[in-house]
Design goal:
The complex is a heterodimer of chains A (163) and B (158). With 163 residues, chain A is an alpha+beta fold. Chain A is built from 4 helices and 8 strands. Chain A is globular and about 50 Å long. In chain B, the strands form 2 sheets. Chain B has a 6-stranded antiparallel beta sheet with strand order 1-2-6-7-8-5. A two-stranded antiparallel sheet of chain B has the order 3-4. Classes of the chains: A alpha+beta (163), B alpha+beta (158). Strand 5 of chain A pairs antiparallel with strand 5 of chain B, so a sheet runs across the interface. Chain A: This is PaaI family thioesterase.
């Protein structure tokens, strides 16, 4: 990677150097407002994977009767996690710009912490596609899934980016 | 939305709806959303620019997630306007296309139209913009499950 030029690149580089992706999330005001952060999955089959986490707070509620999380809050977690995934694992010279995303809501979001994992399905020189899943207590029972595509400016040629 | 022709009764109803919308939904309140107009299956919601909702502090552009929440809320409000009786709804799916970044420092308006309601599902389209619907920031298409208060979404079928 060339020397980081933008503040965003610096934030990525510092978070990587510290092995603490939460530092990257802390750079984004909206993530802070929502209670969205990043962590590396602890021991187990998914150890070391980058995960998005949205800590539960009253401000995330969309249906107070159930209560259930707001669809928009889940959408925000999915989109943020996809963007952080691209920033964390690829060499991008600028923040990915969302072209579009489709969210499917599978289960009602309960008032607890929510986790998300983004998996790039294709990364080209200009467009990156990411599949994201969100779950609460049980990773095998996702509450929402999304497919998102982004405009990216990759520093390395397509096909040569790190996995 | 032709709100020029609203009479006092409709205005009072709109105000009451707007207050209920904010009180009842903490996330809408947290984003500072304001229900500005409603009509037959239509809703218009205002998102004031707020530095707390910025995605990249270098550019000051609002995070896509804030626009997504605005879209979800506006589409949901349009569904409520299309229903003959109040009932709980839940987003089933939502597709959002971002046509251009929101301009830093500027408020965003979203309008949505619920153009079809069936027994279990409502279909909605929406658009977000600064000045004109003809110059959109984002467009959306979504479906909502109806009457979800007493059953979980996983058990509900369209």
């Amino acid at each position: 990677m060339t020397a980081p030029t933008s503040k965003l690149q610096q934030a990525v580089a510092q978070a990587r150097a510290a092995g603490d992706p939460a530092r990257l999330a802390a750079y984004v005001p909206y993530a802070q407002t929502m209670g969205i952060s990043l962590l590396l999955a602890p021991e187990g089959p998914h150890a070391g994977e980058l995960l998005g986490v949205m800590r539960f707070g009253e401000h995330l509620i969309g249906n107070p009767m159930l209560p259930a999380l707001h669809g928009g809050a889940l959408c925000a977690l999915l989109e943020s996690t996809a963007i952080f995934q691209l920033l964390w694992e690829s060499e991008l010279s600028a923040a990915p710009r969302t072209i579009g995303l489709t969210v499917e809501y599978l289960r009602s979001g309960r008032p607890v912490d929510t986790f998300a994992r983004g998996v790039p399905t294709r990364q080209g020189r200009r467009v990156a596609n990411v599949r994201v899943e969100a779950w609460q207590d049980d990773r095998s029972r996702p509450i929402a899934v999304a497919s998102a595509h982004f405009l990216v400016h990759s520093e390395v040629e397509a096909g040569k980016s790190e996995p | 939305m032709s709100d020029q022709t609203l009479d006092a009764e409709e205005l009072a109803r709109l105000r009451e709806l707007g207050q209920r919308f904010m009180r009842a939904v903490p996330h809408n309140n947290a984003l500072g959303l304001e229900l500005r107009a409603v009509g037959d299956g239509r809703a218009e919601i205002f998102l004031p620019y707020d530095a707390r909702l910025v995605g990249n502090p270098e550019t000051g552009v609002l995070h896509g997630g804030a626009v997504s929440s605005l879209m979800d809320a506006t589409c949901g409000a349009a569904v409520f306007q299309a229903l003959r009786k109040p009932m709980a709804i839940a987003t089933l799916d939502l597709r959002i296309d971002y046509l251009k970044p929101a301009t830093p420092g500027r408020d965003v308006i979203a309008r949505a139209h619920c153009y079809k309601v069936t027994r279990h599902v409502a279909f909605v389209r929406g658009v977000a913009f600064h000045d004109s619907e003809d110059d959109p920031i984002a467009t959306s298409a979504g479906t909502f499950m109806l009457g979800t208060r007493t059953q979980s979404r996983s058990e509900a079928t369209p």
